[in-house]
Amino acid sequence: MSDQAQNLEALKKEAALKAVALVQSGQRVGLGTGSTAKYAIEELGRKLRDGELSGIVGVATSNASADLAREVGIPVEDLDPRPLDIAIDGADEIAPNLDLIKGLGGALLREKLTEVQARRLIIIADHTKIVSRLGEKAPLPIEIAQFGFLSTVERLREFLPGGRLRMTGASNYVTDNGNFIYDAQLPADFAPAELERRIKGTLGVVDTGLFLCMAERAFVAAPDGVQELVR
Ligand SMILES: O=C[C@H](O)[C@H](O)[C@H](O)COP(=O)(O)O
């Protein structure tokens, strides 16, 4: 790993530790997905093992996070209608008002289903995820049903041209829910809530990686320290 990549990993971990410091014993915790959320899950496991926390239950946003949580000793339960006390997750882009793009790791649907039930959604990231407007650096992942996916992609391309179906090698990428993902290029100027409505109203779409008005705060780590951003 290059020095630069190593530094970025250290920053992600720093942000994760700040977020995990907010978790209290007995809480039901939404466990995010991705390379930053991984540090939070590991730290929660460490705190349980070292007796700094007890009675934590994790609700995982992907099979990978569920596996990791069990590995580090966090009891994992399925999502049910009860609220979660807190959820901790990474993001692909963070706008100034803490609206987010998520889902480059493919977990957007389970993340949204879980995090919408969290009393507090805490985002952890390194400074490269900060943008002045959503879509500046990352595509917007849109989860779509496999059945009729080419027709769904065509419907999406009518107002979001230039995107592409996500691939893993020569095959379509398949989410934990058995769906495909269309990575859309966002226009330079758009109203996020309106776009979200339009995409969700497109036949064949399951959900989008736009997480609007959901995050309470973000810990964003940069070389000169961790910044806490509050919505
Ligand atoms: O589907 C993946 C999730 O939305 C991740 O939280 C997001 O992609 C950020 O992942 P990472 O921390 O690896 O950059």
UniProtKB/TrEMBL annotation:
Chain segments annotated as coiled-coil in the UniProt record: none
Residues annotated as the enzyme's active site: E111 (proton acceptor)
Species of origin: Deinococcus proteolyticus (strain ATCC 35074 / DSM 20540 / JCM 6276 / NBRC 101906 / NCIMB 13154 / VKM Ac-1939 / CCM 2703 / MRP)
Catalytic reaction annotation: aldehydo-D-ribose 5-phosphate = D-ribulose 5-phosphate
InterPro entries membership: NagB/RpiA_transferase-like, Ribose-5P_isomerase, Ribose5P_isomerase_typA_subgr, Ribose5P_isomerase_type_A
Involved pathway(s): Carbohydrate degradation; pentose phosphate pathway; D-ribose 5-phosphate from D-ribulose 5-phosphate (non-oxidative stage): step 1/1
Gene Ontology BP term (one): pentose-phosphate shunt, non-oxidative branch
Function according to Swiss-Prot or TrEMBL: Catalyzes the reversible conversion of ribose-5-phosphate to ribulose 5-phosphate.
Molecular function GO terms recorded: ribose-5-phosphate isomerase activity
Keyword Ligase set for record: no
Record's subunit section: Homodimer.
Lineage, uppermost ranks: Bacteria, Thermotogati, Deinococcota, Deinococci, Deinococcales
Keyword list, A-Z: Isomerase
Keyword Isomerase annotated: yes
Family: Belongs to the ribose 5-phosphate isomerase family.
EC number: 5.3.1.6
Residues binding substrate: T33, G34, S35, T36, D89, G90, A91, D92, K102, G103, L104, G105, K129
Identification of the protein by name: Ribose-5-phosphate isomerase A
NCBIfam families reported for this sequence: PRK00702.1, rpiA
